[in-house]
Specification:
This protein is mostly helical. It is built from 2 helices and no strands. The chain has a domain of 31 residues. It comes from Nymphaea colorata.
Length: 68
């Protein structure tokens, strides 16, 4: 295990150059970047359960604000 920093492109470059043997990246991020061709495996919920409220969004607004 090594300290592994950088954006997705940097991490994949380090992987492709053999600096590291593996990396774990979010599929959602790879989809946004149109880089899903780099996916070799998708972890199941049994292998890695997401954090509670992962992806939850909270919205607060004023009840007297007609522009909302």
């Amino acid at each position: 295990v090594v300290n592994f920093r950088g954006n997705v492109q940097t991490r994949l470059k380090k992987l492709n150059e053999g600096e590291v043997h593996a990396t774990l990246l979010a599929l959602a991020g790879l989809k946004r970047l149109s880089m899903t061709d780099n996916v070799t495996s998708i972890l199941s919920l049994d292998e890695m359960l997401p954090a509670i409220a992962q992806g939850a969004i909270g919205i607060a607004c004023r009840s007297d604000d007609d522009k909302m």
